[in-house]
């Protein structure tokens, strides 16, 4: 879709493109862990100091099944990446959206949450408007958005408007590839509620990220837009 300009987020241009490095220290260990065990989730946080990961090696990667909680994501965290295991969805979950905003509220350097999908593609919940994200975090609790009691629909608190808005957006994008529809629907919910995030995707680790954002029409419907 040409070079549609929007908020700059250098990190989202290429995987770990921050600091003009083609790769991020710790990523090869992370990649190896994922290739060696696709049935579990692996998680790596990249911290500010020297742009190295938490411990600079395999030891800094969390491994687990399902919900690997990055308890040590801290005020130096620039980004994090985790894998979605074989058989799970590729795109970010609602709790990934929440997690990215949570990290942004704890680290002023935080750029976004990367996800390595089972098919080898990458997604990013990019913080594209930090002020909006922080404002959202001040006005909403985790339970408002994703429900800690497990009452969720597509990951959102099923009693909340987020769940309804996400479902409506998914309907609007039903003509797209399901993963694309999911990403644009998340971006639409983010747009409606001023979350300050955009969902991005790179087809592989050498491809650029493209934003799966949305454009609001005069009839209040959204259309999918894709930008470099
Ligand atoms: Zn995830």
Shape: globular
Report the bound ligands by name, code or SMILES. zinc ion
SS elements, strand count: 10
User: Runs with pLDDT <50, length 5+?
Assistant: 1-12, 17-22, 50-57
Q: Give me the strand/helix succession.
A: HEEEHEEHHEEHHEEE
| Main beta-sheet annotation | 8 strands, mixed
Distance N to C terminus = 7 Å
Helix segment tally: 6
Q: What is the count of structural domains?
A: 1
The percent of residues in helical segments reads 25-40%
What does this structure look like?
- With 228 residues, this protein is of the alpha+beta class.
- It contains 6 helices and 10 strands; from the N terminus they run αβββαββααββααβββ.
- The protein has helices at 27-36, 94-106, 130-139, 142-145, 161-172, 178-192, and strands at residues 41-47, 62-64, 77-83, 112-116, 122-127, 152-153, 156-157, 197-202, 210-216, 222-227.
- The strands form 2 sheets. Strands 2-1-3-4-5-8-9-10 form an 8-stranded mixed sheet, with helices on both faces. The chain has a two-stranded antiparallel ribbon with strand order 6-7.
- Bound molecules: zinc ion (ZN).
- The site of zinc ion (ZN) has 5 residues, from loops.
């Amino acid at each position: 879709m040409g070079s549609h300009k929007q908020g700059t987020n250098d990190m989202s241009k290429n995987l770990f493109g921050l600091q003009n490095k083609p790769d991020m220290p710790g990523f090869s260990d992370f990649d190896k862990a994922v290739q060696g065990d696709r049935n579990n989730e692996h998680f790596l946080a990249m911290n500010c100091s020297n742009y190295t990961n938490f411990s600079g090696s395999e030891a800094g990667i969390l491994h687990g099944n399902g919900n690997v909680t990055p308890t040590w994501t801290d005020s130096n965290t620039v980004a994090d990446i985790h894998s979605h295991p074989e058989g799970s969805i590729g795109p970010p979950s609602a709790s990934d959206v929440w997690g990215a905003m949570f990290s942004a509220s704890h680290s002023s350097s935080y750029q976004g949450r990367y996800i390595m999908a089972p098919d080898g593609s990458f997604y990013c919940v990019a913080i594209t408007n930090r002020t909006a994200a922080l404002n959202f975090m001040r006005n909403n609790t985790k339970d408002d958005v994703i429900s800690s009691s497990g009452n969720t629909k597509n990951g959102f608190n099923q009693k909340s408007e987020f769940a309804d808005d996400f479902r409506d957006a998914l309907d609007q994008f039903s003509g797209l590839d399901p993963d694309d529809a999911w990403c644009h629907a998340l971006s639409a919910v983010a747009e409606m509620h001023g979350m300050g995030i955009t969902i991005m995707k790179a087809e592989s680790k050498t491809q650029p990220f493209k934003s799966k954002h949305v454009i609001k029409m005069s009839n209040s419907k959204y259309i999918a837009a894709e930008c470099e």
